[in-house]
Structure formats: C-alpha cells, structure tokens
Amino acid sequence: MTEMLMGLEVFSDALVSGLIAALMMLVNLLPEEISKPFQYAFMQRALLTSIMVGAICGMLSCYVVLKRWSLLGDAISHAVLPGVALAYLLGLPFFIGAFVTGALTSLGIGAIERHTRIKSDAAMGIMFTGAFALGIVLISKIASSTHLMHILFGNVLGVQQSALLLTLVASVVALLVVWLAFRPLMLYAFDPTQAQALGFNTGIIHYGLILLLTLTIVASLETVGIILVVAMLITPGATAHLLTDRFKTMLLLSMGVGVGSAVLGLYLSFAFDVASGGTIVLVATGCFFMALLFSPKHGVLMRLWRHRQVEG
Amino acid sequence: MKPLCESAPAAIDITNLYAAYHRQPVLENINLSFPAGKWTAIVGPNGAGKSTLFHVLTGGMSPLRGRVKAFGEPIAFHRKAGNIAYMAQREAIEWDFPISVWETVMGGRYGHMRHDPLWRRLLPARWYAASHRDAVHKALEDVNMLALSDRPIGALSGGQKKRVLLARALAQQAKILLLDEPLAGVDPPSEQLILDVLKRERASGRTVIMVTHDMPGARRYVDHVVLINRFVRGSGLPEEMLSTTKLAELAVSAIEQTNTDQTLRSSALALR
C-alpha cells in the first residue's frame, strides 16, 4: 500500500515536471524580457495552474451563463469555506471538505426551493451567506488572518505541488466529462424539456453539472480564491456569448479568454507586484468590455452603427 | 356502427391517470387510448390540462396515480428508444442560445445517437453522422427551412421558429409525434405547410397527437378527437366531437369548473 502511494507520488511528480518542461519550451520561444520571470520554479508552477484553471473555468462558465446559474456559482464558491476549515480540523485534505460542503449547500438550495415557498434567489442567498459565516467563524478560531486572505483571494504564486496536482486531476475530469457528454449537456442547457422527452435522465445531468461546477471551484481555490472564482465562472462565458452564435465556438472562445486572462494576469501581477487573483479577474473583465464594445455581431458600437444606417 | 378508430390498436393507452400541480388537481380519472397510425386532436379550454397531459407523456411530470403505456409497454421505455418526439410550446426554450437551425434540428437525433457505439460518437460530426445528417436534411426540407439552416435560431420569426421545432420532431423519425399547439401564432402559409407535413407523416404510418384550438383545421384533417377539461369530456370521430352541441357542453363545463373552484375557494376562506 505504502509502496503504491510512493509510486503514485513519483509518477505524479514526473508528470508535473514533464508538463512544466513542455510549457517552458513554449515560454522560451518568447523574447527574453517576457520569459524572464518564468525562470523561477514558483512562477512555472503558477503558470501551469493558471492555464488549467483558466481553461476549466472558461469551459464551465458557458454553462453557467447560458443556464443563468451565476448566483448558484457564487453560492457554491462561498459554501466551500466551512469545508476547508472543517477538513483542517479533522486533518483531511482541504479539497475533500470543500467539495462536500459545496455539494451539500447546492443540494440544500434545491430542497428549499422545491419544498417551500421561498424563491431560489433567496434560498441561495440564505444558504451561502450562512455557510460562509460558519466558515469565517471556524477559521477565525483555527488559523491566522493571512491564511484566510489566501483562501478568499487566492495566492497563485504560492501554489504547492499538491494543489497543482489537484487542479490537474480536476481539469482532466472536467474536460473528459464535457467531451463525452457534450450533446446531452448542450441539449440540457438549451432545452431541458426536449432532453427529458428524449429519455435523458435530466436529474443526473443537472446534479452532474453542479458537481462539476463544485469541482472546478475547489480546483481554482488556491489560484483566484473563493471570491474571485465567481468572476472566472461568469466573465469568460459572457464575453464569448457576445462574440459568437455557435456553442462549440463559444466554448473554445471562453476557454481562450479564461486561459489568456489567467496568463496575462499572472504576468502583470508579477511585473507590478500586485495581487494575482485580482489582476487575473481584471484582465478578464477588460476582455468582456472590449467584446461588449467591439463585437462584430452583438457589440454596442456595431449596433449603434446599424441604427444610424437604418435611420440614414 | 362502431367508429373505425376504436378497433385500431392503440399507440398510447392511459388508465386511471391523476395529475396535480401544487396539490391543485389538473387531470382526474383520465382513461384514454390514442389509435396508432392516426391523427388525433386534443381540444379543450385554456388550463384544461392538455399541456399537463403531454408533460406526463414526455416525462416532465410524474402523475399522482395511473398508468401510461405505449404499444403495450411502459412509455419510459419508448422515450429512451427515441420513439416519442415532442414539440413543446415555443416559450419553453432559451432563444438566446448560440445554436444554429441545423444544430437545433440535429437535437432530434440525440436520442438515437445514444445507441451508436461510443467510438463512433467520439468522431467529429462531419465523419460520424451521415445517417443523422440525412434525417436532418430531409426534415429541414420538409418544413422549407433548408435555406436558413446556418442562421442562429434567435434570428428567426415566430412562424420560422415553429417550423424549426417541427423539423426537430420530424428528424427524430419517431413512431409517435406529440405536438403542443403547433399552429398557434403562425402565419397562414406556415399553418398550411405544417398541416400538410403532418398529413404526410400520418400517411407514412406515424401516430400524430396534437393539442389545437383550430377547429376548422381539426375538422378537415384529423381522424380522432379527444375533448379534455380536467376530465375526459369525449373521445371519438371529429364529426361527433366537434359538433356545436359537444363544443358548447365543453365550454359550459369550463364555466362550471371555474364556478366550483370559486365556491370551493370562498368556502375555504369562510372556514378560515
């Protein structure tokens, strides 16, 4: 048993170093002024994590935007906090606790919504603020406020090997699920009634998507933090929605926006010595406003121009 | 003389069905059979439970009680086998979704794709889906929408949207077609086109069941009529069911029902 675990560790270390080496080959193609910060090992780890987090958050954000789940994403991400604290108290890996409380809260929201007269937005507001408050109380008892700040706002420059590995596993799982269940997921987002009529189990699709969302949030915890992961789960998808009328293109664009803003944000945060999570989200927000103004199909400027043409 | 439809085998058999929303009964003691290979119209006032009946048939709602069979087997089996196509009312769909007319209609094939081997499903659509593509092509041709197949669905007019949803149901090539008000809010040419398409579908042996408010259309085209207002108010040939007396009875039942509901509600208030 111990030998197997050791073997697994050696394998995962080798996998991560291999990925980083491949990534560095690409980075070294860039001019030296740009690639310079990535000579540090912590920057290399940060780069790999950011790329993965940007990709899966971007991918999931399409479903979040189209299903109008923004508030649900917000709720799950906050509900993760008490899980982190409880896992620390029980001596478990933090992601197990985070995943459990995140999933429990989303189930609780669904139950309140279905069985009482409370509407879904209120149900979410109550559940996630409650869970978040519990998390803050627990953490104030067991850890320093710097630690709390890292969980809330992320610290991609301090990503450890274990967190990197978790992000890697979560990314592979999320990508595989979306690839294999691409059609049912799209149909469920577009027209759940039709999915049901075709005999798809929409309950499984619904909760599967919520679990996937929880997994993504847990995997992004150390990079952008609980508060800002919500932005990464909404902004890339909303940006892509402004740019295209094809779902596949939207997925790819959204992943591109996610990865691009994660990488650029990481670089800028190093260059100007500012908070990484915030910088990443600011870059994504910048992308959104660019799309809002300049999108050839659904942009504000294009719309104004078309109006003028009609009037003229 | 026994009406012809009743001797034909049933596509859907409903026994002793009860359904409710938030403890408000919507359908009570429904016993119905829809003849196979025929075109049936379901007629009833607004709020009579017609759409609810379809929700039960398509798995969107579980009944309180009762049994629904298709061709003698539980209807869930036929749903999974892709034998039941459903065209919902327009409002149920997210029209802002980034999807083209072609991809929307391809959605009708997803049930069948599930039965294809996994390795094929992983291929890009271009190589994998020849038979599915043919079905989509034909369905779009049938509803005269092939020219617009690259359009995003959000950019279509009301009548065009209906035709695309009909095409999606047709592309499924299912044994049973369930259509919830396929003619509501469409322009007269689209209406004629939809009726002609459904006529052809019936002629090729499919069972067509539609909810409609269009009495002249129903009189002209359908083989069988079901009158519903919470209870089954009649089931039989169009000439009988759509006679002025029958329709007047149905209208009276609607008024009576509103009255009883109101009496019940006021007595409940009085008890409080």
TrEMBL record, chain A:
<feature type="transmembrane region" description="Helical">
    <location>
        <begin position="274"/>
        <end position="294"/>
    </location>
</feature>
<keyword id="KW-0410">Iron transport</keyword>
<dbReference type="GO" id="GO:0006826">
    <property type="term" value="P:iron ion transport"/>
</dbReference>
<keyword id="KW-0813">Transport</keyword>
<keyword id="KW-0406">Ion transport</keyword>
<keyword id="KW-0472">Membrane</keyword>
<dbReference type="GO" id="GO:0043190">
    <property type="term" value="C:ATP-binding cassette (ABC) transporter complex"/>
</dbReference>
<feature type="transmembrane region" description="Helical">
    <location>
        <begin position="198"/>
        <end position="218"/>
    </location>
</feature>
<feature type="transmembrane region" description="Helical">
    <location>
        <begin position="163"/>
        <end position="186"/>
    </location>
</feature>
<keyword id="KW-1133">Transmembrane helix</keyword>
<feature type="transmembrane region" description="Helical">
    <location>
        <begin position="250"/>
        <end position="268"/>
    </location>
</feature>
<dbReference type="GO" id="GO:0071281">
    <property type="term" value="P:cellular response to iron ion"/>
</dbReference>
<comment type="similarity">
    <text>Belongs to the ABC-3 integral membrane protein family.</text>
</comment>
<feature type="transmembrane region" description="Helical">
    <location>
        <begin position="42"/>
        <end position="66"/>
    </location>
</feature>
<feature type="transmembrane region" description="Helical">
    <location>
        <begin position="224"/>
        <end position="243"/>
    </location>
</feature>
<dbReference type="GO" id="GO:0010043">
    <property type="term" value="P:response to zinc ion"/>
</dbReference>
<dbReference type="InterPro" id="IPR037294">
    <property type="entry name" value="ABC_BtuC-like"/>
</dbReference>
<dbReference type="GO" id="GO:0055085">
    <property type="term" value="P:transmembrane transport"/>
</dbReference>
<feature type="transmembrane region" description="Helical">
    <location>
        <begin position="12"/>
        <end position="30"/>
    </location>
</feature>
<dbReference type="Pfam" id="PF00950">
    <property type="entry name" value="ABC-3"/>
</dbReference>
<feature type="transmembrane region" description="Helical">
    <location>
        <begin position="122"/>
        <end position="143"/>
    </location>
</feature>
<protein>
    <recommendedName>
        <fullName>Metal ABC transporter permease</fullName>
    </recommendedName>
</protein>
Automatic annotation (TrEMBL), chain B:
<keyword id="KW-0547">Nucleotide-binding</keyword>
<dbReference type="InterPro" id="IPR017871">
    <property type="entry name" value="ABC_transporter-like_CS"/>
</dbReference>
<dbReference type="InterPro" id="IPR027417">
    <property type="entry name" value="P-loop_NTPase"/>
</dbReference>
<protein>
    <submittedName>
        <fullName>ABC transporter</fullName>
    </submittedName>
</protein>
<dbReference type="InterPro" id="IPR003593">
    <property type="entry name" value="AAA+_ATPase"/>
</dbReference>
<keyword id="KW-0813">Transport</keyword>
<dbReference type="InterPro" id="IPR050153">
    <property type="entry name" value="Metal_Ion_Import_ABC"/>
</dbReference>
<feature type="domain" description="ABC transporter">
    <location>
        <begin position="12"/>
        <end position="255"/>
    </location>
</feature>
<dbReference type="GO" id="GO:0016887">
    <property type="term" value="F:ATP hydrolysis activity"/>
</dbReference>
<dbReference type="InterPro" id="IPR003439">
    <property type="entry name" value="ABC_transporter-like_ATP-bd"/>
</dbReference>
<comment type="similarity">
    <text>Belongs to the ABC transporter superfamily.</text>
</comment>
<dbReference type="GO" id="GO:0005524">
    <property type="term" value="F:ATP binding"/>
</dbReference>
<dbReference type="Pfam" id="PF00005">
    <property type="entry name" value="ABC_tran"/>
</dbReference>
<keyword id="KW-0067">ATP-binding</keyword>
